[in-house]
Design brief:
The complex is a heterodimer of chains A (about 140) and B (about 325). Helices cover about 60% and strands about 10% of the residues of chain A. In chain A, α2 runs antiparallel to α3 and α4 packs across α5. Chain A has a two-stranded antiparallel sheet with strand order 1-2. Chain A is elongated and about 65 Å long. In chain A, a hairpin with a 5-residue loop joins β1 and β2. Chain A folds into 2 domains: about 30 residues, no CATH class; about 100 residues, lambda repressor-like DNA-binding domains (434 Repressor (Amino-terminal Domain), Orthogonal Bundle). In chain B, strands 3-8-4-5-6-7 form a 6-stranded antiparallel β-sheet. In chain B, α9 packs antiparallel against α11. Chain B is an alpha+beta fold. The chains are: A mainly alpha (about 140), B alpha+beta (about 325). At the A-B interface, β1, β2, α2 and α4 of A face α9, α10 and α11 of B.
């Protein structure tokens, strides 16, 4: 690829491409991301629509907030279980709204750490009533 | 504690970038393409189903950690490495090394690199950065994907170094301990090329190397059945562009950086035929870039019907044929 063909004006995301310079030598060129420059709005709109659809499912009691964040963060059950150091079967239960209410504060904290959010972000997603660990957390 | 004087520069890829910059800062004049080529970094793998991925994916480089190991073995460089069970001790050890003015390479989960824009960050446990200091705001980071030195909060670095999951970093850190005064690049380059050719042509696993490109071409038309909806399929198809261009490949799925390595190798070994291979590899890279731009376009336009995916699949078969011919010729020539 020639230097001119590779150049993208996108200060938001810079990267290195290896290109053919004018003297025929190949080498690095700092440039912008093609996909961020041209398609970031499309990515954001898809993320937003996914988020709305999942939020709707949480509110309707179809999935739990753990499921919501797992899909938003593109994690598999296996990967999430390994990160929160729980068995897959246990995590599978936590994806269901009924079992979510029984999760201890300590485990909620592990999930929050993996999703890089506060525990309250998990609970306030739907204002799930009757969550003892969550209420304790909010009161603290 | 202050920042250790360290020449930061962006690089195409995090591992080859971190290894190159640590070696450069330790006094060895070596380029990123040379590190990439000597360590046989170029690769292809298609994973249709894997427990740590939510959707089929491709990989375009050798196993994480392999670049450092291969460079060490082939150039006679010794890296000091450590892993930790206890996060507290792992952080303390890092501080001790920084206090000794040693820039330290660490393996992290990319997701927690707060200085990188949020839309880029994903959970991937095999990102490599160099920690070059610490101040009241946090750790000073030299990251190949960031134009300047970044600052990372202590809590974020700790989470990133001790994240669980597939290929968990376990606090892994490394730094060059010994660099020989005289290095025989000739042997190392030939070994690097031969191993790269072997990896692309001869691994007897149907989804790795050139066979992996064909597997990708064959199974791509099945993707619509695996996606939640059209938007999800569009996202996954557009990710082909990210994997080929944005996710630290130097463009064309590492093919441009490999072409650069072959050009530099031709000069060092004084073998002009490698310069011809280099030009051919650049053209192969252009072919991959065509695929990445095509994927981004059809994804954005939601033009994802069977005909369009067959077209993409045909392009992939074509790239597989080109690479098979290329690596066979290259294997014979070295």
């Amino acid at each position: 690829m020639k230097e001119k063909e590779g150049y993208v004006d996108c200060p938001k995301q810079q990267l290195i491409l290896y290109v053919e310079k004018e003297d025929g030598k190949y080498g690095p060129m700092q440039t912008g991301s093609y996909i961020t420059r041209n398609y970031l709005d499309d990515f954001e709109s898809k993320q937003k629509s996914l988020e709305e659809s999942l939020r709707h499912q949480v509110i309707n009691g179809e999935i739990s907030p753990v499921h919501y964040f797992m899909v938003m963060e593109d994690l598999t059950i296996s990967e999430l279980a390994s990160r929160v150091k729980l068995r897959k079967a246990k995590v599978r239960k936590h994806l269901l709204p009924g079992y979510f209410k029984e999760i201890s504060a300590e485990i909620l904290n592990s999930y929050a750490e993996v999703f890089n959010i506060q525990v309250n972000d998990l609970l306030e997603l739907t204002h799930i009533p009757g969550h003892s660990a969550g209420e304790k957390e909010i009161n603290e | 504690m202050n920042t250790i004087p360290y020449a930061h520069k962006m690089a195409a890829h995090c591992e080859s970038g971190a290894v190159t910059s640590l070696l450069n800062n330790a006094g060895l004049d070596i380029t990123e393409p040379m590190v990439f080529g000597i360590s046989s970094g170029i690769f292809f793998g298609y994973f249709h189903k894997m427990k740590s991925f939510t959707f089929p994916t491709i990989i375009l480089r050798s196993q994480p950690g392999q670049m450092r190991k291969a460079v060490s073995k082939r150039l006679g460089i010794r890296f000091h490495t450590e892993r930790f069970r206890d996060p507290e001790y792992g952080m303390k050890r890092l501080d001790e090394l920084l206090a000794e003015n040693k820039p330290v390479g660490v393996q992290v989960d990319f997701y927690y690199m707060d200085y990188i824009p949020e839309w880029e960050r994903v959970h991937i446990n095999v990102h490599y950065i160099v920690v070059v200091g610490k101040n009241e705001s946090g750790y000073i980071i030299s990251d190949s994907y960031f134009p300047n030195l970044g600052v990372l909060k202590e809590s974020s670095l700790k989470k990133a170094r001790f994240a669980g999951g597939n290929m968990a970093p376990k606090g892994f850190l490394f730094y060059p301990e010994y660099i020989p005064e005289k290095i025989d690049y000739n042997k190392a380059i030939v070994k690097g090329i031969r191993k790269a050719c072997f990896n692309m042509l001869k691994i007897p696993i149907p989804f790795l190397g050139v066979k992996g490109i064909r597997q990708f071409a064959k199974r791509l038309p099945e993707w619509p059945k695996l996606a939640r909806d059209t938007e999800h399929l569009s996202h996954e198809i557009m990710k082909i562009n990210i994997l080929l261009e944005d996710q630290g490949t130097g463009g064309g799925g590492f093919r441009f950086i490999f072409a650069t390595f072959l050009q530099q190798a031709a000069e060092i070994l004084k073998r002009p035929e490698l310069a011809d291979f280099s030009k051919e590899m650049m053209r192969i890279g252009d072919g991959w870039r065509e695929i990445s731009l095509f994927s981004a376009r059809i994804g954005k336009n939601r033009d994802l019907g069977p005909e369009r995916l067959q077209e993409l699949s045909k392009m992939l078969y074509d790239r597989a044929d080109n690479e098979e011919k290329f690596f066979k010729k290259l294997y014979k020539s070295v």
